[in-house]
Amino acid sequence: MGLSLTEKSFLYDSLTLDPPLRPDGRGPHQFRPLEVSTDFLPNSNGSSRVILSGGSECIVSVKTKVVDHTVEQELLVADVDIQGHRDDSPLVTSMSSLLSKLLKQTIDQKKLMLTKRYSFKLYIDVLVLASKSYPISMISFAIFSALKNTWLPKLISNDDDLEVEELPTFHDYDMVKLEADAPLLFTFAIVGDGVFVDPTFEESIVSNNGLLITWYKDKVTSPIRSVGLNNDNIKGFSQHHLEQAFKLIRQYAPHIEKALDASD
Amino acid sequence: MSVQDRRRILGPAEAKPLQFAAITPVRTVENRDDGNGNKSGKESVFISTDLVTNANGSSYLEYMDGTSDQVLVMSSVFGPRPLRGSFQSKASVSIQFKEVTLEHLNTGEIKEICTFLTNVFNAVINVEKYPKSGIDIFIDLIQHSNSNPTEEANIVNILPTCINSITMALVDAGIEIIDLVSAGSKDNSVVAFIRNGHEIVGIWSDDDNVTDISKLIEECKAKYLVNKQTLVQYLK
Amino acid sequence: MTESIDIHPIVFPPEVLARISPDISLQRHLSLETRPCSRGFEEFRDVAINDGNISRYSTNCQNATTNNIIGSSLLRSGKTFVITSITGGIIEETLPANNTEDVGEEELMKLSEDTDRLCENSTIYPVVEVQRGRVGGPTDEEMITSEKLYKTLLHSGILKKTALAVSCGIRRTEEDGSVTTIYSDELLDEEKKINEANNRKWSYVLYAKIQVFSRNGPIYDLCWNSLISALKTVQLPRAFLDERAADLKIAIRTRGRSMTIRETYDILCDPHKSLPLKLNEGELCYGSNYGIIDIEPLAQLAKNDDEMDVDKPTSVLLADIETEAEESSILSTLSLTTNKNGQFKAATIIGGDSKITPEMIKRCIFLSKQRSKDIESKV
Hints:
The structure holds three protein chains of three kinds.
Chain A: H1 5-15, E1 34-38, E2 46-52, E3 57-68, E4 76-82, H2 90-106, E5 118-130, H3 136-148, E6 151-155, E7 170-177, E8 184-191, E9 194-197, H4 201-206, E10 209-216, E11 219-227, H5 239-262
Parallel strand pairs in A: 4-5
Antiparallel strand pairs in A: 1-2, 2-3, 3-5, 6-7, 8-9, 8-10, 10-11
Chain B: E1 16-17, H1 25-37, E2 44-49, E3 57-64, E4 70-82, E5 92-99, H2 107-124, E6 133-144, H3 154-173, E7 182-186, E8 189-194, E9 199-205, H4 213-235
Parallel strand pairs in B: 5-6
Antiparallel strand pairs in B: 2-3, 3-4, 4-6, 7-8, 8-9
Chain C: H1 14-20, H2 22-31, E1 47-50, E2 69-77, E3 80-92, H3 103-115, E4 125-130, H4 140-156, E5 169-173, E6 179-182, H5 189-196, E7 202-213, H6 220-233, E8 235-242, H7 243-247, H8 258-263, E9 268-276, E10 286-294, E11 315-319, H9 323-329, E12 332-338, E13 344-350, H10 358-378
Parallel strand pairs in C: 4-7, 5-8
Antiparallel strand pairs in C: 1-2, 2-3, 3-7, 5-6, 8-9, 10-11, 10-12, 12-13
């Protein structure tokens, strides 16, 4: 699976050229071509599927249930499953902890409230079918498009039940679109002096370090993390790497958001 | 789903943990003011090494920010010790984090901390020097007085002390590192540096309002330099 | 022609010898009338005990609002230290439905309880963890120590069930919104009646998390001493029900969502008021351990000739086993838990390869009483 020393050194050298040369000819700011399809799971309230060139693939399904929010305060549950990794592996647990914390912070829970007592509870299930590179970026794109295309049943009973325990009733087939904005996460590989967005597996192997930056509602936000994209090539980086990554994200993230938004 | 643990004596299943009623808000507000308004209090660090005798190296750090925040962390380094299995040309570093007394962090957060710290120390430990070896680092958070299960800032408050403590334990164990790592924090962000602040080895930010990254790094760097100076003074 | 072969003796520094051949190292030490830890044969390690400022009731505690630890101890013995933190839970006791009406039933229960004296005693649920630089499930030693602590405390009678009973208070919300909490033992007599209507019973459950660092010898005695000193610091928070919940009979609805209703009736703990845990002070006791080893004549360092014939004892008694050399080569061990008056709570005697004589046991008993007295003065 790994690369030979010569291959690594060739790759590293070409990435540190000026201008850098990525193996698939992309610019530092360019994503791999990606294909998004939504609403393909009839049993889910919202779903999406993201396929990257190179065979990485991720499916997200959003399901909902009505709960009493005076008892159950958690209205969002995100679960990440990555093929080929155990559920308790550091990659899966730390990613799923990061995502669920982030989604809880960003998604407006008021939108899920039905009455003074009842709310929708969202279950966001992520399944990464194939991925060699660090998959969090792809997952966040998939969650973003799934939440943009989530339809919830329309409430027809009164929305103020004065805390009386009365079950809300829904319209038989009318649905309301959940207008929820999810954050987008970007991964950057730091190789030599350069910063590259959306690194492939090969680029990750030779990278000196990685960065994870979040984009939400037209600005850079938390979490910002340094992440190791490999285990044996890690080095420190400098301030200008961070500044460069911020510059790239500010410049290109709005385009990506727009492109994802348009994909219905 | 959960399998019953038959190896530990866990007590009756139907018992519920003690739930303390919320304290009247007046008191909490006072405490908060003490904690945030008066940050200018003297920060102090107590360092001791060689506390854990059966580890190759260990350190114990007490960090007090002069008001009420107190972080007590103990690190122990086991290794370099032989790794089984196929040949590895470099050492493999593993970091385990544990809360000794209070249990306020969930497993996911603990794993996040471990992954982050492993990444930081992968960049700093001279792994080429130790082929076929494993270096296992254990961090025990003994106390974090301001920890609050409902607050987000917990991790950011303890991370700098954890990083300093691991650095001291590695020094105590005589494991080669390229420079003393230390970290500085500012408003919910932690940045770990080496080489007098010219190189960053880790950044962890939970700050929702990162407008000027350069300024943030400069501020963390200032604190890093202070922390590093403390470590150097202890080692002298 | 054969060349003569020179045989050089191999010399190891003491720490290497202790590692590769612990038995020889120990024997050499013994022949010098000392021990690998450089203590005398009957000398114990120094013990320091305090509460570690871990519990929410510690005098210097700063996080009383979020801390759920109700008792703690930090015990240091030589280089080894043990951190014990005690947390609590509340369990509702199942009462027979016709609690007071059926006299015969009650009598029967009393009779059976008299024969089973253990059911008056209560215990704690300990989890022992020894830091050893590995991850994974608990080791045999951790499991055995936990089990032994659990059983010994149960049989010792230090902790009685009555000490863990919750005397439940009631929280009242006055019309102006002010909240008061009333406990039955603070009430005037006429008000007491209100509470008697409420015939649910709870009791506290205690859990101990015992962490051992720098393990350097048998841990059971250290864990026991730490547990007892932590128990002495335990403060049980006062618990109360909300008035609204107490007045209502538990209305469990049968269809599906019954759970949601019961949850709101949860018993809560008072963040300020607490009572010390009542321990059976007379039964408190502390542990110590001993090892007996034969002196191997062959492993002795050479002495002057005139000393050779002096009758030396063939085995020695060592108090407070420490270091790997002692632990791995001493197979005959005694572990005694007693108070200063010699009231034993637990005694484990393992006869290994060395003969344990009655005189030695007597000596151990004497030493353990002394040790217990010493620890008691420090707790």
